[in-house]
């Protein structure tokens, strides 16, 4: 069974994140970059499926050269190989262009059975890319999975949304996006860390995946960020000291905020 | 030589730090105060291969060096949950067995030490032979093929979690009758071997014990390495020990410094955060500098050791341990001061580090003995003892 995991390098949630003033794209230099935690879970799920069914796990990543570090992390966890689409022309690509690039990169691989992605990245949080990739591939999409089962022929998930939990099934090939509840990702073992460097990573340009430079990137993006403003600083909360009246004061506060 | 760590070392550092953060200081203290152990963390680190990174690959280790092993310990320490037994089990005992053991001894012990399923304590200190290892009296005599070991050890860490202990004893030279050191592996269930806990004021899940060997009969292959080269073999294990002790101390210093810095950034007593006052910011900055210097010396010692320079590593390892012990003591002390009253509370978890932070000044070798070593060896000064 050949499994592809879509991975993204994102600024560490704990570090300060900024958009660049010039073009409202992510200022990648301002923050520590890490493999998105949701992608660690996607990799974990792929490894579990591989351990049960056999096969290979390939990570596919679109991102600048530095995203190599995120790829190594996925390889050190146990993925077998990687495809890294890295091209200056991709800078500022929006969700649609990203999905096109990823779908094209998946297209360069032979006989993929299952694509696993995180449901949304912790930086962009559009949550649209997995569905778009599935659409472009013409494959069924099973999104928001909190549980995944596959026998190598079909895949079944528990889909959790605000509306409730549904069991969704599809024949392979298919795409699944996973939520935080799916699993606890493993730590890379020392052997995994040492092996990661020797695993094959093919770096592809936009042209290598069969797209042209004017189809991707900020200039031709169908969506545009017109303006952006930093989030307002957190205001100090209200401290209620309980001198017998604490409960009442909390209720008053909550009703003042129209929360109860 | 490079001041940049290899990609693999950095990845190991990050992974060990993440693992450590999942357990953290609260877990560590809870285990310490409830009489528990850090077994879950030990086992998980072992399974991931972090405990045996320095041991040979053919025996289940990671095939890297003390540089890598000390990185793991430093990161666990920085996360608030240092594993003291890493200093002893893979670093001292694992090194000695890997370098001087027979094939059978390596088969018997190394895979377990590497994945953490076996733990080996290390016993050299005796009631009358702490700083002065020449006064060791634990003795092994030949009886047919067997050895019979008698004697007493004190302050031995982790015997309660260990499967065996490597004991530094002495054997009688058949020719001259003089006693010379030799290393024996004694299983904890060996008849005639007993131990008793020592009440310590360290807040640590790793406890210390007095050991009693009363005519403990051991098979011939309990002796590790050659009977005639015991001292040399012992020293081979002591460099890793010092490098690991340094890493544990710098990890502790980082943990304390992080807590102090986080606190002084938030806390305002007048209008600015207290971290703006030079009375607090300068001592913390000094500690940061001393910490980086200690880490650098630790890395140098590990680099020399891993490149096969035992002698060069010896001086660097001693200096690293000195510097690391000083900065861990000072960092915790300054953390307590920076937190004011909260520095002495249970909740903020700084006061509880005070005794443990001083440990590195005393063990595995005292600060004074390191100064003696440097005075005599690096400066050529005469000995007072
Ligand atoms: C928590 C803990 C864990 C330990 N774990 C282990 C273990 O696992 N295995 C093990 O074998 N040992 C262990 N030890 C023992 C430790 O290595 C010794 O305590 C240490 O070597 C000091 O020996 P001592 O306690 O006998 O002090 P002493 O030798 O009695 O020294 C007392 C003081 O006198 C000073 N002093 C002595 N001689 C001189 C001199 N010539 N010049 C200047 N000053 C001098 C010393 O520096 C020290 O300050 C542990 C100790 C502790 C506290």
From TrEMBL, chain A:
Leader sequence range is none
Gene3D superfamilies from the entry?
HUPs
Which SUPFAM superfamilies does the record cross-reference, listed alphabetically?
A: Adenine nucleotide alpha hydrolases-like (SSF52402)
Q: Which cofactor does it need?
A: FAD
Task: Extract the ranges annotated as region (Disordered).
Answer: 223-242
- One GO molecular-function entry: electron transfer activity
> What are the record keywords, sorted?
Electron transport, Transport
Family, similarity comment: Belongs to the ETF beta-subunit/FixA family.
- The protein depicted here goes by the name Electron transfer flavoprotein subunit beta
User: What organism does the record attribute this protein to?
Assistant: Halopolyspora algeriensis
TrEMBL record, chain B:
What the entry lists under SUPFAM superfamilies is as follows:
Acyl-CoA dehydrogenase C-terminal domain-like, Acyl-CoA dehydrogenase NM domain-like
Q: Which residue ranges does the record assign to the Acyl-CoA dehydrogenase/oxidase N-terminal domain?
A: 6-116
Q: Which UniProt keywords apply?
A: FAD, Flavoprotein, Oxidoreductase
Start and end residues of each Acyl-CoA oxidase/dehydrogenase middle domain = 121-199
Q: Name one GO cellular component term.
A: cytoplasm
* UniProt domain Acyl-CoA dehydrogenase/oxidase C-terminal: residue ranges: 230-378
Q: Which cofactor does it need?
A: FAD
Gene Ontology process terms (BP): fatty acid beta-oxidation using acyl-CoA dehydrogenase
Q: Which family does it belong to?
A: Belongs to the acyl-CoA dehydrogenase family.
The protein, known as: Acyl-CoA dehydrogenase fadE12
Q: Which organism is it from?
A: Halopolyspora algeriensis
């Amino acid at each position: 069974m050949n499994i592809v995991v879509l991975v993204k390098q994102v600024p560490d949630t704990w570090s300060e994140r900024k958009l660049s003033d010039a073009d409202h794209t992510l200022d990648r230099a301002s923050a520590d970059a890490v493999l998105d935690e949701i992608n660690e879970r996607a990799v974990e799920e792929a490894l579990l499926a591989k351990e049960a069914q056999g096969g290979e796990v390939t990570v596919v990543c679109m991102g600048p050269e530095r995203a190599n570090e995120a790829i190594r992390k996925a390889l050190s966890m146990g993925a077998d190989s990687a495809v890294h689409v890295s091209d200056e022309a991709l800078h500022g690509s929006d969700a649609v262009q990203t999905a096109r690039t990823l779908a094209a990169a998946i297209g360069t691989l032979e006989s993929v059975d299952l694509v696993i992605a995180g449901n949304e990245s912790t930086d962009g949080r559009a949550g649209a890319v997995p569905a778009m990739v599935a659409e472009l591939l013409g494959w069924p999409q099973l999104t928001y999975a909190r549980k995944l089962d596959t026998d190598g022929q079909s895949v079944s998930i528990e889909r959790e949304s605000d509306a409730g939990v549904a069991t969704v099934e599809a024949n392979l090939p298919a795409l699944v996006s996973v939520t935080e509840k799916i699993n606890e990702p493993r730590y890379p073992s020392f052997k995994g860390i040492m092996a990661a460097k020797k695993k094959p990573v093919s770096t592809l340009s936009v042209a290598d995946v069969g797209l042209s430079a004017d189809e991707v990137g900020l200039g031709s993006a169908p969506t545009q960020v017109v303006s952006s403003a930093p989030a307002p600083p957190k205001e100090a909360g209200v401290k209620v000291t309980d001198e017998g009246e604490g409960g009442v004061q909390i209720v008053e506060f909550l009703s003042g905020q129209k929360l109860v | 030589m490079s001041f940049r760590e290899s990609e693999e070392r950095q990845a190991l550092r990050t992974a060990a730090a993440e693992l450590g953060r999942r357990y953290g200081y609260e877990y560590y203290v809870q285990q310490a105060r409830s009489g528990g152990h850090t077994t879950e963390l030990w086992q998980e680190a072992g399974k991931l291969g972090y405990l045996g990174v320095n041991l040979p690959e053919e025996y289940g280790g990671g095939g890297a060096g003390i540089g890598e092993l000390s990185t793991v310990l430093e990161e666990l320490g920085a996360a608030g949950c240092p594993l003291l037994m890493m200093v002893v089990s893979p670093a001292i005992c694992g090194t000695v067995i890997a370098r001087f053991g027979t094939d059978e001894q390596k088969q018997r012990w190394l895979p377990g030490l590497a994945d953490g399923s076996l733990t080996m304590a290390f016993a050299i200190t005796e009631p009358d032979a702490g700083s002065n290892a020449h006064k060791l009296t634990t003795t092994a005599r030949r009886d047919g093929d067997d050895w019979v070991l008698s004697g007493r050890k004190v302050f031995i860490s982790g015997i309660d979690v260990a499967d065996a202990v490597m004991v530094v004893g002495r054997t009688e030279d058949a020719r001259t009758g003089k006693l010379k050191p030799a290393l024996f592996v004694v299983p904890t269930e060996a008849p005639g071997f007993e131990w008793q806990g020592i009440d310590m004021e360290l807040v640590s899940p790793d406890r210390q014990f007095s050991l009693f060997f009363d005519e403990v009969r051991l098979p011939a292959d309990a002796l590790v390495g050659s009977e005639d080269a015991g001292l040399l073999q012992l020293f081979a294990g002591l460099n890793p020990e010092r490098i690991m002790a340094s890493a544990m101390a710098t990890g502790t210093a980082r943990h304390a410094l992080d807590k102090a810095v986080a606190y002084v950034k938030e806390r305002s007593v007048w209008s600015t955060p207290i971290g703006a006052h030079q009375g607090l910011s300068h001592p913390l900055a000094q500690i940061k500098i001393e910490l980086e210097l200690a880490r650098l010396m630790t890395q140098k010692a590990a680099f020399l050791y891993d490149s096969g320079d035992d002698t060069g590593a010896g001086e660097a390892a001693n200096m690293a341990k000195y510097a690391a012990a000083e900065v861990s003591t000072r960092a915790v002390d300054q953390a307590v001061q920076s937190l004011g009253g909260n520095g002495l509370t249970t909740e903020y978890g700084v006061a509880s580090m005070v005794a443990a932070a001083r440990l590195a000044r005393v063990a595995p070798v005292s600060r004074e003995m390191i100064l003696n070593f440097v005075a005599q060896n690096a400066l050529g000064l005469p000995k007072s003892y």
